[in-house]
Structure formats: structure tokens, C-alpha cells
Amino acid sequence: MLSVAESAERLGVSPARVRALIKAGQLPACKSGRAWVLREEDVLERVAVHPRAGRPSAASRFARGSAHREPTEAGAPHGLYRECRALFSHVPTAAMMAQAQSQEEAAFYMAVSDFFLQQRQAQLVKEGVF
After folding, report:
1. pLDDT tens by residue, 29-74
2. Which residue, of 8, 31, 40, 103, is most buried by count of CB atoms within 10 Å of its CB?
3. SS3 assignment, position 67
4. SS percent in the chain: helix, strand, coil, step 5
């Protein structure tokens, strides 16, 4: 779960813009006491579907579907990281696991997902949530 401020930082917009998106129903959120909280998956999906205005960077073009490009393109390794983070920042779905073509592929999905889960957990511990 992310706060409005954390969501704004990830989206590259102001907290007021995040609240406006919530009010307009364009970004799912729920109240926790007096504060809005957003699912990290919803924020990452918004980033993927609604890129920022202006010319996209090479890394963001890679992350939005040019995975078939040669990895020699400038920024490609960073794009791979961002794409993996967007796809695996949550537990892989049953459908994703069923589509795995081998046990090794399924284990890879779980390992990458576990990595990002541990990163998020460490961040929450650092913030004093746990």
C-alpha cells in the first residue's frame, strides 16, 4: 500500500494531482482513517498505461513493450529492471504460473517476485511501518 505522497512520487505528479485522479475515479484508492491509500499495483499500472507528457526516454520505451529490441540500446538494462519491477512487484498470478513453459521459468517468476517483495519490505521497515 502506498500513501498519496509515495504514489505522486512514482507517478511523477503532485499529491494534489493524485487526489484529483482518485476523486475522478481514474486511480483506485481507499480511505484508511483520514488518509488515502493506494495499491502499488494500481500505481504501477497507471505509470505503464499513462506515461508522462513529452518525449519518452529510451528506458521508458523499452519498458513499454520493446523487449524484442537488442539489449545494446542505451538505457536498455535499466528498462529491463523497470519492466521486471512492474511485472513482478506482486505475487505472480496463477495464470502466469500456468503459462510457464518449464519449472525453471516458474521458479524464475517466483525468484524475481520475491526479490521485489523483499525490497518493498525493507523499505517499509526503514520507514518504520513494521
Report:
1. 988 888 899 988 888 888 777 766 445 555 544 444 444 444 445 4
2. 8
3. coil
4. 60, 5, 35
